[in-house]
Amino acid sequence: MRKNVLPITAGVFGSLALAAMGSLFVAGTASADLTGVTIEVAPDQHPDGDLWDTWLVVAHFDNFMDRIALVGSSNAQELFFFTGGGDIYNQPQFPGATLNDFPSVGIGGEAWDSYVTIGKTIFPSGVQFTPDFLGDFGGDPPDVSVILGSSFGPETNGAWFFFGDSPEVGQWEGNVIVAQFTVPEGVGFHLEGAVGWIPASPGAGIELDAFIVDNIPAPGAMALLGLAGLAGARRRRRR
């Protein structure tokens, strides 16, 4: 089920305090754009479909050589998520652990669990939080689960990011999963933030494009209106 996509336009962004991310500044060979962010029906639904709906958040690119680095905040766009009612589903295998925030299929995790990611849907995902994400953890990534309850954020200077060389989007045919949320049946949710990506052009720096997505399920059906939008009129490129 493909949703409506509004084009992402550029915004004015400041820098993120991102540790261990020198690999973000990888050069490519051609230039292209992030074209949109959508919410889509997940292929792995919670087995109790009378109680839960499982959704993907997907970033779309039109050049397979672009690289995706992170989903986070900037000083122009906070990162936050909330549901329209009820808590998201959290798997029981790893309660209270950061592992519960990332894909864990392959080590006992559930395919329909709620998590954040950069493309990968199995363990190890290669994804981490920036230091002090959603709290004061002494400068280290949190060692407790932070994707809990009915909301997280607002986060004003943090992200989840791919640790290591930022992957080319072509391995996912330009459609990169950045989160999966299982929410109570018929409940919508809102997510906004910024996607950090590197155009496939020589010497390109990281782009931060803001997005807003909402799903509005029709009563009693897995129907959705996906909205991707943005404030601002320019893009700042970090080099």
C-alpha Rg, in Å?
17 Å
Structural class comes to: mainly beta
Share in helix: under 10%
* Beta strands, count: 12
Poorly predicted runs are 1-31, 220-239
Largest beta-sheet characterization: 8 strands, antiparallel
Strand percent estimate: 25-35%
Shape by Cα distribution: globular
The SSE string, one letter per element, is EEEEEEEEEEEE
Q: State the helix count.
A: 0
Alpha-carbon distance between the two ends = 38 Å
Overall average residue pLDDT: 79
Description:
This protein has 239 residues and is mainly β. Helix content is 0%, strand content 31%. It contains no helices and twelve strands. The protein has strands at 34-41, 52-61, 67-72, 79-83, 115-116, 127-129, 151-155, 159-162, 175-184, 189-198, 206-215, 237-238. A hairpin with a 7-residue loop joins strand 10 and strand 11 (206-215). It is globular, with a radius of gyration of 17 Å. The model is unreliable at 1-31 and 220-239 (pLDDT under 50).
Question: Main attributes?
Answer:
8-stranded antiparallel beta sheet, disordered N terminus, 239 residues, mainly beta
